[in-house]
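Lab notes, practical 5.
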Amino acid sequence: MHAAGNDYIYVYGQDFDAGDAARQAPAWCDRHKGIGADGIVLIRRSRIADFKMEMFNADGSCGLMCGNAARCIGRYLFERGLSESADISLETASGLRHIHVNGSPECVGSISVEMGRPSFSEPSQFLPELESAIPEDSRGTFVSMGNPHYVIFVEDIQAVCVEISGVKLEHASCFPSAANIEFAQVMADNRIRMRVWERGSGVT
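Output from the prediction step:
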């Protein structure tokens, strides 16, 4: 399933564990030889919420939170009658999130996720190495929605080689757990164009 083109392979149930997902992710997510996806998402029952989400990036590394994946989970659970309620609580590695499904199981409409407030505080462990690790022309802003993002505004987004710049910045020494890298350009018609390099998955 995908939301806004952000696609994952979803596995429901207890008989496929996290170790299996981490091992299988590189092969399953390969877009030439496998199923093709940005990662694998496990859907389980939870002790503290209605359901639990476990994420694995395309390279097998663990993910924390993805709003698009959560929306797909909402549709999956509601459409298949696994949740009778249109309001679903979801346990994630970044805490509880709440999904709301509009429509009926026969005709699911829009799906929203309460993501919480974004945090713009720069993690203290990043600061000592920031100036040496990030080139001056790639300086941006930290923001977290439950997982780390680094957003860089540019004059011409088409001139950015995301495949080269993204992977370099993802693993910069000031990001000890790697980071999602977003390149953004404010367009003339009051829109923002964004290109994403997602940690562990590449261009999404």
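Observations recorded by the TA: The CA atoms of residues 118 and 145 lie 5 Å apart. Helices lie at 18-29, 67-79, 127-133, 162-170.
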